[in-house]
Structure formats: C-alpha cells, structure tokens
Design brief:
Layout (H helix, E strand, L loop, with lengths): L1 E2 L4 E2 L1 H5 L17 E3 L2 H7 L6 E3 L5 H6 L8 E6 L3 E7 L8 E6 L6 E6 L4 H11 L4 H14 L8 E3 L17 E3 L7 H19 L1 H6 L4 E5 L6 H11 L4 E4 L5 H7 L4 H4 L3 E3 L5 H22 L18
Helix pairs in contact: 4-6, 6-8, 6-11
Length: about 325
C-alpha cells in the first residue's frame, strides 16, 4: 500500500478489503515526533502533549521474511529499538515490554518484545568513544573488536542511555559503567557498552529461549552488520542456532509479499558461527556478572524501576 514515487499510502489496495486510507496511520518521514493526543494520553495513562514517534508496526512483515527454513524463529531487529518477534501459544513473559498481535502464520499470537534500549546507545558510543565519524568510526570500531572482543574482567556497562533516571525522576538517562579504574581505556568502555547491549537482549529473551517456543534466532537491522554483535549474541543464545539476514534493507518489503509468494517473501539467511569455547566461556562469565549487578542494583530502585524484571528471576 506504499506508493514509492509519491511517498504516500496508496488507497487502491486498501479499497479491495473495504478499508479507507484514513484508517491507516500516515507514513512517517523519518524519526519525527508529534504531540500525544488527549485521547491517546487517556488510553495509555500518560500526559497529553508528550512527544510520540511512529508508526513502527512493520513487525509482522519482518517476521514473515525470516520464516524460511523454520516455522518458529525468533526474529530480532537490531535497529533504532532492539525488538524481537516470535509466535507464541502461551503468552509473552510478564516482566517486559510486550505487544501482542494476531499471528500472521497459523495459531497463536505474534509477540513483539522490546528491549529498553537500542542503537541510540551504540550511536552515542561511536560518537563519544571513537576519534572519527561515519564510516571511519565503524572502521575504528572494527579494529577495537579485532584486538579484543570483550572488556576487561569486572568492567560492565548498563546500556540504558535512553531511559528515565529511576533515582531522579526529573533527570534523563540511566546509562552507567561499573568497574572502571585508572587503566580503563575508551576502547574498554566501547567493548563494555556493546557487550552490555547484548547481555540485556539475552536477559530479555532468556524466558523465550527457555520456553522452547522458538528453534532459532534470526538477526536483522543495522547493528547486525557488526560481526562483534553477531558473535556475542551467538554465544549468548547457544545452543539455539543464530542466523543473520543476507539482505539489510528489504526484509520488511519481502515479508509484505509473503502471502502472495512464500519464495519472494523470504529473505535469505546465513548461519552465524558460534564463538570458540574460550571466548564462549568469557561471554557467559560476563553475562553472569551483568545479571548479578543488575539484580543487586534493582533492590534499591523505587517501585516500578526499570530493572524490575531482575527482581522476579534468579540468575546463576
């Protein structure tokens, strides 16, 4: 229903199913925001007029682009927000941000499970901890991770740079580093931030992994182009196999074609190699420490703090 020439929704296809164009949200022109309406504020229990962005509801299409070779993938978009989509029969875990939609394939529901963070944290890290911009910054990051994938033992980053401060409601930002010392370098902080993002994603989807409702993980979105993100996540989601989409820009469009042609709708995937045993062990040690720090910190948070999920689960 998208007219690529005019950059507008096309009413013709919608008429085929008796849906007026006014029923569908307008196309966004980027990441612009609009004030939340009075009706929307009442529905969500929020304040009228706060900035709202979207729509971003392309999750069904993204999921359908990843069903090739497996009827039960966990399709993860490492984009502006880090989001995982999967079909479930029993309902999504309670301790997280979930949107439940009708399943686009078979019975059940499509769970859209959101991590409290995304590539805004990665953008900040590149801009702040590297001495270059754009492609040069990515080249510098490549060199940093080729030298060493993980931060020094004991160094942990909490990657919530885009969340409210739970201790100071009038302040913004919950990002933090723990374990810095006089020898900590910018490269160490960069590695810690990337590892922290992956650790948090693994935590959010740990109950999904343990539920046996998914049989593989398919990575897409901008950060999936970084081999260091892929290797960390392959280690964290083991023994589930992890794949990456071969195409970065077209999965949403392909998924929209899935009902008409399964072959055209599926984006190709490529298996992500699991890290060596020594690296795998270090990844899991870092993940265990990350969970321990988060669980300890959560004990002192005000009621409803963003770490509440750690109070409900015990980590070894």
């Amino acid at each position: 229903c998208y007219n690529a020439r005019s950059h507008r929704l096309a009413a013709g296809p919608l008429k085929l199913i008796d849906v007026p164009a006014s029923f569908v949200a307008p196309m966004r022109q980027g990441h612009e925001t609009r004030p939340l309406s009075r009706r929307g504020a009442a529905l969500l229990g929020l304040h009228e007029g706060i900035p709202a962005t979207g729509p971003y509801l392309d999750h069904e299409a993204g999921y359908l682009s990843a069903v090739e070779g497996s009827p039960r993938p966990l399709q993860v978009s490492l984009g502006t927000a880090w989001v995982g989509n999967y079909v479930c029969q029993t309902g999504a875990p309670a301790d997280g941000l979930n949107l439940m939609l009708p399943s686009p394939v078979g019975d059940g529901s499509l769970a859209v499970r959101v991590m409290v963070g995304g590539n805004a944290s990665w953008d900040w890290a590149r801009e702040t901890l590297l001495d270059a911009d754009g492609a040069k910054a990515l080249s510098q990051a490549e060199a940093v991770f080729r030298e060493e994938l993980l931060p020094p033992e004991g160094l942990v980053a909490l990657p919530w740079l885009t969340r409210p401060n739970p201790f100071v409601p009038t302040s913004y930002g919950s990002g933090a580093f723990f374990g810095t010392n006089t020898h900590t370098t910018k490269a160490d902080l960069l590695r810690a931030l990337v590892a922290g993002m992956c650790f948090e994603l693994a935590h959010i989807f740990e109950p999904v992994k343990d539920s046996c409702e998914v049989d593989r993980v398919v990575l897409g979105g901008g950060a999936s182009n970084g081999w260091y993100f892929r290797e960390l996540l392959a280690g964290l989601f083991a023994p589930l196999p992890v794949f990456r989409l071969e195409e970065d820009e077209t999965p949403g469009a392909r998924g929209a074609l899935y009902p008409f042609s399964h072959r055209a709708g599926c984006a190709g995937t490529r298996r992500v190699r699991r890290p060596a045993k020594r690296v795998q062990a270090r990844i899991l040690e870092g993940y265990s420490l990350y969970n321990k720090i988060c669980a300890t910190l959560s004990m002192g948070l005000p009621h409803g703090g963003l770490l509440h999920g750690y109070q409900r689960r015990t980590h070894k």
